[in-house]
Structure formats: C-alpha cells, structure tokens
Give the backbone structure.
Amino acid sequence: MSTTADIRKGLCIELNNDVWQIVDFQHVKPGKGNAFVRTKIKSLTTARTLENTFPSGADLKIVRVERRTFQYLYNDETGYTFMNNETFDQVTLDADMVEGKEFYKEGQEIDILFHADTEKPLFCELPAHIILAVTYAEPGVKGNTATNAYKNATVETGANIQVPLFVEEGDVIKIDTRSFEYVERVK
C-alpha cells in the first residue's frame, strides 16, 4: 500500500473497482484544517475523467500498468484488431476501449496499456502527434485572414478537422491527438 505522498502524474491506482490514472494533482494545505490532495483522474477502462480529493496520508492501492506498442491492423464488427510486432500475437479490443478511432490508419503504431498482474488490456491510445495527408480541403475565402481563420478538411482516415486557410488538398499535416487539432504542415 502507498499513501498520497506517492501521488505523481501518470500513476495508476485502483479506486471503486476500476483502474484510474492520475492526470493532474495538487497538494493543498489550508490555513485551517487538515491537508488534502486534489486530483484529476482518468478511468483506463471507460476513459471518463473526474476530480477526486484524497485526505493527506490516505492509503492508495497502486496498480502496475505496462505500456506495449502494437500495430493497428483493421476493425470490424468484433472490434479493433492490433498485432504485437515482436511476438505477432493479435489482440482485439472493443470500440469503447479505443480513443480517437477516427484517426487510426492501418499499419500505424499504437500503445496499449495492460494490467500487469492480470494481463488484461485496459486502454488504447495514439501517440501524442500523428501525421496524415489531407484528402479534401474546402477552398479558402480570400479576405478572411484578418484573424486566425480556419476551414474544414478531411484527412486520409476520413476524420474532419479544422485547419488554417493555407492548407490545401494533398498537404501532409501533423495533428495533436490529445486535442485533435492541427499543429503544422509537414514537408
């Protein structure tokens, strides 16, 4: 068992029969009363986030989680199928365990988090940035450049995102997978 003194970003804990990852935390010592730790946690099974407050010194059950790299193969009615590049084992995950599925491209490397004790897959996530080609971009309207103007564009996976007016069809762009926003054009 560990205590709230061991809390750090990325730590995985078991709470209410679910595995949660600490996204952010703040140790608070008010002038009056006991200290506490305010946390923002994300469920690794449902991808739901919530805020939770732990009293200082509270016991926490830390869960060991392993991050393994898999290659995305395909999706069908059974779910999303991934392959381990070292052992060639395949894993099929339900759609609700896959985050940002509209940006998955065949052959792309994806990280899957596994519960180390039970070998159960918990959550699937994209790398921080992905590079995709633009297959369709609305024409930019001349004169809309006084402010940061954006237009709709479709990337090769079929996802729609907002891009600056200068992005054209055929351009290759970098997308931030945490916010699903345009980052830059790639040469």
Observations:
- The first strand starts at residue 2 and ends at 3.
